[in-house]
Specification:
This protein is mainly alpha-helical. 50% of the residues lie in helices and 2% in strands.
Amino acid sequence: MTRKAHFERNTLRFPQKDFDMVKEGIVSLGIVGVAVVIVAAIFGAPYRPAITNQEIANQKPILVMQTAMGDLDGQGEMAAYGPPYNNGWHGVAQNIQSIGPFSPQTWWGTPYHLYTPNADVITPLTMLATASNNSALQAAIQTYNAASYTQQQAWDNNFTNALNKATVQNGQVVVPSGQYGPVQLMMNDELALAKSGLLSGALDRETNNGVYRWNIQNDLLFLQGPALHQYAKTIDMKGGQWGINHDEQAYPGPWWLTPYTFLYQVPPGSTSPSGDEIVAYTIAVLFGLLILLPFIPGLNKLPRVLPVHRAIWRDWYKRLETTNACASCPLATSCNKEFHGPMTAAADHKIPACYDQTTSGAEGSRFVSQDSGIQPHA
């Protein structure tokens, strides 16, 4: 008889209880599903509605103009982001993360190409000018496109600086007089488009040459950067506010992400420009070690050094002692040592000593000779 067969047969000497894992899983899933439906019907969706371009345009019109200007002049976060969206602004990418030469972010190039001046400003305004037959806006776009890059940058910089002194009067953004060329008119119409709620539709117009019917990339990325960060801060959702592992409400939140969030609070996760990559790979390595723990020499001895199983199975062993269920078991003493310690009962065997037929000693000899007929090792 093989050692495995001995182990399986001898295990059956102890009290058994049938357990249908599939049945238990289906029942548990059914109970949880019904509970979720009932709670959702009573309390509704637990989260606030999604933040929209229209909402921010009405509440913070200057912020929308600053975001659009960043897309137009190349100073915005997405304009100079880098792969997978673009190669930065004039070849200078600001958001490439790497650990030495290891940078998976750059491996696939720019499959989701985003050129923000056209994608977020020029094309939506051209659509608006056509739909509304707005000749002034059409002329402004033509003037801007026909100007040299140096002239465009001069208009852009002047208006960007003016926005730092802007005020909001009756929902309109008022800036000091300056040399803005067609930019001021373009930004006013961009804001009007956002306030109307049509900007998201204009940003989502592209369909990857018809491959996908619905591409919301540009809409999702339009507010990326200072706009979303400002809103996230007001509801304690930024990374430095442990925003990953708690919801807008304090409870319950994804508490299981606490180790992941913790790495963002300490260097280098909190200080490195490649913090996301460092944190992600650290968690991946730790998770891999956890999965492979039973096969890593030394680390696989931790359960014996840290006998957590005694705490987990304490009720089971207490019940065996109370009912005296092990009275006739020849390995009762070894089994008791396995649970209560000292750890000598577990020795260096993968199988606990109280199940191991190779264990020498009076109990092991008696057990083997009585139940299997196989003589113990000398």
